[in-house]
Amino acid sequence: MTTNKPTIAILTGGGDVPGLNPAIRAITIRALREGYRVFGLRRGWAGLVDYNRDAGADNSECVLELSEADVNRAGRTGGTFLHTSRTRPSHLPLARMPAHLTGYDKPVNDITKDVLKNLEHIGVDVLIPIGGDDTLSYGKRLHDEGMKVVAIPKTMDNDVFGTDYCIGFSTCVTRTIELTHRLRTSAGSHERFLVIEVFGRYAGFTALLPTMAGAADRCLIPEYAADMEHLTELMVYDHNRNPSKYSVVLVSEGANLQAHEGMSFESEEMDMFGHRKLGGIGDKVAAALKEYSPKYNNGRRIDVVNQRLGYLVRSGDPDALDSIVPMAFGNLALDLILKKEFGRLVSVHKGFYDSVPITSVTSEKKTVNVEKYYNTDRLRPIYEFDGAPLFIMTSD
Q1: Does residue 69 have a pLDDT over 80?
Q2: Are residues 158 and 20 part of one domain?
Q3: DSSP string covering 161-224, please?
Q4: Which residues are catalytic?
């Protein structure tokens, strides 16, 4: 596949979000016009794991050359037409090892040397991984090994350190607000509590921002362990002062509860990055609200409408911001490549487009500043905005 033209390869890893296809489109169109050849690596890092360097091997499921027509068709849609996975080449289980790779016999193997050989065989000069901290941490590994890497942050949790904004976050918040308002009709019709579980493994931005925008009365976030009796007291107060007799709480999937502090609500299934699938804390919150509600409601129980939004907030087309920011990030990536500034992560910092060293990705976690933005007594946002960044968060 090696050509005389310099070659850029793009991949998308981790969870899908709206905005990935606009980013791929922006990179490809700009790169082609700058004289590059562009390849899409399919299924995230899995495309480089499964790529076969043997003569005559069919690698159409691993890599494809991109044209302007290809990306124009997909650029207005959600998801990623390159597909994605949570494959981690540095921690590849033996059961996942491709048949053509030999010399690996441990239960878990680091096949980075073959990934680098595959990139060389394809003829990749610069790699652009688009993903969250897991995908980008392996991008940093390849940078450390000598590969030229420029990274783009993507995650609806918005928790990649080094940038105030990640592709997918705005659409997630937009969908959460929209769906929460829709569910109000059922909660109000039955005079119930409404418990909505949203994304947010380590950071509570996807619960905090919609609550700040008026979608909910209260929110529970991973950064603070809430007491369920205290939440119930607040929810009963909200319920009874509402003319329609209902109240709403948004619960991050990774939220803490005092009675279960340090415990996450997760399945036994674990991905290659060591993450178990989260889900179920909304059920626990709903059950506790029903149990404690008579104590704060003159002996009368209040029932619950309990809903996990899940993939509804990460599916469909991108909103305006997740159509614009990916376009800007793609062009920023090309600017860095043309200036030969590699090992960088494109970013937004205090409202301005920028870039930071890719080492920022693994330096620390970006989480809600509880002291600044979360009222631990009222279990809701602090509404102070003077000098605050647009999305009430910064990587500083």
Answers
A1: yes
A2: yes
A3: TT-S--BTHHHHHHHHHHHHHHHHHHHHHHT-EEEEEE--SS--HHHHHHHHTTS-SEEE-TTS
A4: 157
